[in-house]
Amino acid sequence: MNVGGYLLIPPRIQTFFLACFLAPSVLSAAPSLTIYNQNFAVVRDSVPLDLQPGTNLIRFDGCAAFLEPSSVVLRDPAAKHTFQILEQNFRYDSVSQDKLLELNEGKVLSFELSSSEGGQVRREIVPGKVVRSGPMPLIEMNGNLRFGLPGQPLFPALADNTILKPTLVWLLRSDAAARFDGELSYVTGELQWEADYNLVLPERGETLDLVGWITMDNQTGKSFENARIKLMAGDLNKIQRFPRRQVFAAGFGGGGGGGAPTVAEKSFDEYHLYTLERPATLLDHEKKQVEFIRSAGVRSKALYVYDGASMDPDQVWLVQSLRTEPEYVIPENRKVWVFREFTNSAANQLGISLPKGTLRLYRRDSDGQLEFTGESTIKHTPRDESVRLFTGNSFDLVGRRRQTDFKSHLSGAGVDPVTGQPLVPSRSSEPPSMDESFEITLRNHKRETVQVRVVEHLYRWSSWQIREPSQAFVKTDAQTIEFLAELKPDAEQKINYTVHYWW
User: Fold this and answer.
1) Is residue 33 in some structural domain?
2) Is the pLDDT of residue 97 over 90?
3) In a domain, 486, yes or no
4) Cys-Cys with 188: which of 35, 36, 64, 118 at CB 3.0–4.6 Å?
5) Are 395 and 467 members of one domain?
6) Domain shared by 449 and 497, yes or no
């Protein structure tokens, strides 16, 4: 249907993805891409149209193999010429050996056989009938059947309707003759981008340098020459019409600093848009990296966290274990986790919305070489928010957690609100309760003083009270508290507390 110079094919089109491309503009020959970090992209390209009055057959073989036909928009960008689409076909069964074997099933082909005798290569042509094309070809030769091809198949010339590339074919009706470049927009799968960040710390100190890279991965079956590229970041709703591939993107560091930024960033609707400042060629089956952020002097700090309670994934606990089993969540974790944290703000030499990606941390050794010290991933991080990445377990910090006492007081009458089972009456009028005591021991084998956040989870119930803590704590949520321990070199510190639960 033609409306005001716009040709919509078909009506069920995802207008959000294409809205930013539909404003009239002067169209150049170079394609434009908006790549989303959800393995798809919007492509805008030009199609030479030479229309005669009446019906015209138009073929365009410059589209991606993973094009979504229902997303196609073909129009005159200047809105001067009107035409109507009568039919659209998308053919993506391009020529391959398997396809030609399929087209020649039941026919006799020539096969070129090669053999070597006395250092000489001997070639001969033998006929064979293609009984079955695949997945395991079945060939009849000299009255015998054999699996697999006997040699290199020689195919007859291609027919006029054979396609070599994925092709869009339109049947267009025009009221008048017109020659112009039509604008073609569509959604394609198998075009992905990811962000990678390299963080470099000096030999000593916590101020780091950050380099961010954009990695684009083109598996669409089409190369884009000198394309104008935008990258959309955000968790946007998109129906996946093609199987998702697992993409491994390489991050690179180094290079010179200074100069104008290579990528411009801005808010766009509920997402963020990153525009490459110069055209780039993105070949099919190519990964391309572009630096998009470089900052020096970013202040950061190391965080040490000890979370000593470790649930055993193979242990099945009944609800009654909350009140009766002393061993509930007792298996301990002895590792102290290490995090690196910094603020994404202009005051901290950053302040750009950081798309989700992988952060790799390096520290410079005394000989000047960079040593890899851990990596993690981040989600989309707006400006003025904190970035925290887990880098591993500390070698020189050790934690121990042990239960020192457990008392369960299942007294009182009535029904257990959790299990629904009747409680055993007792002479006491106090509600059912229990007390549990712990001792956490931390040891520091480093040569410097460190602070460790000790996280304790009050798993058994939401009604609790901490009694006799050895030091102050902070309640972080309904069932979690934290102690802060400061350990000098080669020092040990113990934290004790008792938690009283009631129901």
Assistant:
1) yes
2) no
3) yes
4) 64
5) yes
6) yes
Assess if residue 15 is contained within a domain.
yes
Dist. CA 284–CA 334, nearest whole Å:
49
Query: Phi, psi (5° rounding) for residue 379?
Result: -90, 175
User: What is d(CA 231, CA 214) in angstroms, rounded to the nearest whole number?
Assistant: 9
Highest mean pLDDT among 10-14, 19-23, 462-466: 462-466
When mean pLDDT is compared across 124-138, 157-171, 256-270, the lowest value belongs to 256-270
Rounded-to-10 torsion of CA 203, 390, 309, 419: 170
pLDDT in tens, 180-225: 999 999 999 999 999 999 999 999 999 999 999 999 999 998 999 9
Element (H, E) at 17: helix 15-19
Same-domain check for residues 86 and 103? no
User: What local confidence, expressed as pLDDT, does residue 263 receive?
Assistant: 67
Please tell me the distance from the alpha carbon of residue 306 to that of residue 319, in angstroms, as a whole number. 27
**pLDDT above 70 covers what percent of the chain?**
78
More confident residue, 240 or 28: 240
Query: Is 475 inside a domain boundary?
Result: yes
**Domain ranges, residue 121:** 97-154
Residue spans of alpha helices (H) in 286-348: 321-324
411 burial type by CB count under 10 A (0-12 exposed, 13-18 middle, 19+ buried) = middle
- In three-state secondary structure terms, 99 is helix
| 3-state secondary structure at position 167 | strand
Token digits of residue 479: 């069932």
Of 1, 168, 161, 170, nearest in space to 68 by CA: 168
The pLDDT of residue 421: 56
Query: 80: buried, middle or exposed (CB in 10 Å: 19+, 13-18, 0-12)?
Result: exposed
Secondary structure percentages of the chain, helix, strand, coil, to 5:
5, 55, 40
Residue 171 shares a structural domain with residue 315: no
Tokens for 272, please give them: 């963020």
Q: For the chain, first and last CA: distance in Å?
A: 68
Residue 369 has pLDDT above 70, yes or no: yes
Taking the mean position of all CA atoms in its chain, how far away is CA 114? 48
Report the C-alpha gap between 55 and 101 in whole angstroms.
35
Exposure class string for 125-146: b at 16+ Cβ within 10 A, else e: eeebebebbeeebebeeeeeee
Tell me, yes or no, whether 402 and 455 share the same domain.
yes
| Residue 248 to residues 161, 194, 195, Cα–Cα distance (Å) | 38, 9, 11
64 and 29 belong to one structural domain: yes
Q: Are residues 55 and 150 in the same domain?
A: no
394, burial (CB in 10 Å: exposed 0-12, middle 13-18, buried 19+): buried
If asked whether residues 110 and 88 sit together in one domain, one would say no
Euclidean distance between CA atoms 403 and 496, whole angstroms: 10
